[in-house]
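Student: Please help interpret what follows.
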Amino acid sequence: MARPTFILPDLVSHCPYPLRINPMCDTVTQNSEEWILKEANYTPGKRAKFLDTKAGILTAYCYPDADDFHLQVSSDYLTWLFCFDDWSDEFDETDACSFADCIMGCLRDPHGFQTDKTAGRLTKSYFSRYLQTSGPRCAKRFIDTMDLYLRSVAQQAADRDDGRTPDLETYIGLRRDTSACRPCFALMEFVAGIDLPNEVAEHPLIRSMEDATNDLVSWSNDIFSFNKEQSRGDTHNLVAVIMEERKLDLQASMNFAGELCHQSISKFEADRRSLPSWGTEIDRDVQLYVQGLQDWIVGSLHWSFVTKRYFGMEGEAVKKHRTIQLLPRKDVERKEAALQMQNPVSYLVNILFTNLVGSLLNMKGWVSLWRVPRT
């Protein structure tokens, strides 16, 4: 029997921004992968999955104007981030809190804090290089937003342990932290060599543009990763939350999520037109920052079809036709496999009986099979 399908909303065509790529893309991607592989003790399967991510390409899309040093630090961070994201999928709340304490210790004291955790050693490596050129304000923003990210990962683990699906409003707030976009925005300042005054960075319109970018990046990621996540029963996903709260079917929920993404770009542009002036020098820095947000919107969209995390080898094809076959739930597959192992004869009889009944019900005039004509 053919599996059900659904259609992804067309997010790429709706995005008006040109995709740019840093010419050092291949070099930093390879360097970051080698940097991780020296520390991480991956099995062959997990090593292949890691190499399929291509976080260096995402970095080159989102920081196209970075010089070699700043691009490499950014690529190392994003590559580390995807590794941590995969590790955290297996965390319970206790694990998440333990890792958070370690990583925050490394960020607050990258030279003095001692740890034997791989995630911690890698954190000390990238952040000690970050501090070589970052301004004090953007460094603090990076630390503070990483703290929010790690706390949200712990909350996500707690929700997963309890089988909770948050309501839409709660989810949107939590997703802005679990996305890890906010530390990546602090990286934009590091890359551009700017250090926005706090009153500028905290201005309502700047914050609103950050939220619009964050929402577009994280919600589009939810759309693209939904199939994989639903197959393992993960409900920390915008589409799953919409289905639960709005009582919509899958396709209607996908369309609803796509419309939210479209609204985010419209909000971003409206806020851009309303930005005030802070003087020539700060206005120049703000424009660099806003350009960085724009690069994140378009870069993350296109990278989603380059990485193999969401669509495997079919990324370019999916980008064109947008039709996805729904994966079966792994817990259902496991139950069926267990039943088959426990009593293979009963399992086979059950399958044959189910198929026979289905065939009879689909035959025209099946009732006549049970009637004897009168003579």
Remarks:
- The chain has two domains: 5-328, 338-363.
- The first helix runs from residue 25 to 39.
- The two ends are 42 Å apart (CA to CA).
